[in-house]
Structures are given as structure tokens and as C-alpha cells.
Write a structure and sequence with these properties.
This protein has helices at residues 65-80, 89-100, 115-125, 143-153, 216-222, 246-256; strands spanning 43-44, 134-137, 156-162, 171-172, 189-198, 202-207, 210-215, 223-230. The chain is of the alpha+beta class. The chain has one domain (32-256): Cathepsin B, Chain A, CATH 3.90.70. A hairpin with a 2-residue loop joins strand 6 and strand 7.
Length: 258
């Protein structure tokens, strides 16, 4: 059984507790369900990138997972467009430093980041020269929304409150004892990952330079924030899918985010 486990206990996390601002825009408000295209039962992006070919983006050494997840989404979107762009480690560290005050020389202020702070910075300033157009929060535990967001916009940006049991699981799943003890949410810490696929069993995410599977039960138990992102790096983001009001989302976001 041990041969099927992977030890990530020495890896860094770095997602600060979720900040649920009541002003955060909700994806549900911009959907016209009857006009949306059907969501496939399963889908996965970035098929041209090897499972272990994503790069750590220094998340094995510092708590920059929130920015590494952004870098991995940029890779996925540009790969889908046929022009893969891989942000450098320096690009990711620069963004993490600008957002948090982390000093790469002294190592000070390596305290992680709030996901919405990263998203706001990414939208206004860009990461590795790439900006997102807008973002909106997904409804908690709504599997259809994360499937829809992943399929229509090439992935989602999520935060998980990881249990200690996740350190050695090949597939992230709720342990037999449930979400308590070593399986308690946050007993290891907060982590940011990007979703690049899904099927009936769960989600495919990118973390620590590789693909990782998580079950739907795990997502329901440990995901504490999730966002759909719209970027011109992704082909479908250049024109909003039928049934999604991108113009209204962008206008509303400008009203609440300075």
C-alpha cells in the first residue's frame, strides 16, 4: 500500500485564510442557464504538458502557491492556444513579493497570500506579462458550477484547507475517519491550486509541478474558495460563451475593485 503513496510533507503551502468579502461577484449572477452550451461529462486541458512538466515555481521552497497556481493557469491557457508560455520562477517570485512584501534576499515576510489579493493584482498589474480580464466566485459545493467554469474558461482557481492526511495520498480523498483529527480541514494548512479537468470521480488539479487528482468528496470537504477567471490567453475567453454576461461582470468588477 505504501508504494501507492506520495510524500509531499516537505512541500510548502501558502494560502492565507479565505477572505469572503460580501462584495465579491458571484458567477451565478452572470449565467443564463438555458443559453449555455452543455457541459461534457468529463474534460481535461493541457494534454500537451507532461504530468510532471509544470514546474514547481519555487513552491517547494517558499509559500507562493497562490502565485504558482496563477502561473500554471497561464501555462494551461497558452498551451490550449498552441503557443505554450511558461512563466519563469523569477516572474512568480516577483508577483509574490509585490503582493505580500516577501523579500527573496532575506526570506522575510514569506507568510503566504490571500487569493483575492492575488486575483486583484493579476487583473490590474499582470503576472509574467499576462493579465486576467475578470473573475467571479463559484457557489460552494456546486459541482455543476466548477465543471462549467473549468470547461468554458479553461480552468478554475481554488483554495483548499488541507488536512494532514493529504500529505501522503496519491489521490486526495477524505480519510476513513472522516474530516476530523489528522483529517480535519486546515490541520496541515491552506493551499492554492488550479483546476484543469474533471470527471465523474473528481477534479484534476496542478500542484507542486504536477497533476493531482482529488475526489468530489474531498473537494466538498476541504475547498473553502473557488473562482472562475476570464483571460484572453484562453481561446474561449476572447469572446464570452453564449449565455455568460462577460460585459456585465467586467463593469461590476470595476465598481467594487479600485
Amino acid at each position: 500500500m505504501e508504494a501507492h503513496k506520495t510524500d509531499h510533507s516537505n512541500m510548502k503551502l501558502g494560502k492565507s485564510p479565505a477572505v469572503h468579502d460580501p462584495r465579491t461577484l458571484l458567477m451565478a449572477n452572470y449565467l443564463t442557464p438555458d443559453a449555455l452550451p452543455p457541459t461534457p461529462a468529463k474534460y481535461v486541458y493541457a494534454k500537451n504538458i507532461p504530468a510532471n512538466g509544470w514546474g514547481m515555481m519555487v513552491n517547494d521552497k517558499i509559500g507562493d502557491c497562490t502565485c504558482a497556481a496563477a502561473g500554471h493557469l497561464i501555462m494551461e491557457w497558452t498551451d490550449d492556444n498552441g503557443a505554450l508560455f511558461t512563466p519563469s520562477d523569477q516572474d512568480i517570485v516577483n508577483a509574490y513579493s509585490a503582493i505580500t512584501g516577501y523579500n527573496p534576499v532575506t526570506g522575510k515576510n514569506d507568510n503566504g497570500a490571500v487569493e483575492t489579493n492575488v486575483l486583484n493584482y493579476w487583473r490590474k498589474n499582470g503576472i509574467a506579462g499576462h493579465k486576467i480580464m475578470a473573475y467571479a466566485s463559484l457557489e460552494p459545493k456546486n459541482e455543476s458550477h466548477i465543471k462549467l467554469g473549468t470547461f468554458l474558461f479553461g480552468g478554475c482557481y481554488i483554495g483548499v484547507s488541507l488536512p494532514l492526511t493529504a500529505q501522503t495520498q496519491k489521490v486526495w480523498s477524505v480519510p476513513p475517519g472522516g474530516a476530523a483529527g489528522r483529517g480535519a480541514p486546515g490541520s496541515w494548512g491552506g493551499h492554492a491550486v488550479c483546476v484543469v479537468g474533471y470527471d465523474s470521480h473528481g477534479l484534476t488539479v496542478i500542484t507542486w509541478g504536477a497533476t493531482k487528482k482529488m475526489t468530489w468528496s474531498f473537494w466538498n470537504a476541504y475547498c473553502d474558495e473557488a473562482y472562475v477567471l476570464i483571460s484572453t490567453d484562453f481561446a474561449a475567453g476572447k469572446t464570452a460563451p453564449s449565455g455568460f454576461d462577460l460585459a456585465a461582470l467586467q463593469a461590476d468588477l470595476k465598481l467594487i475593485v479600485a
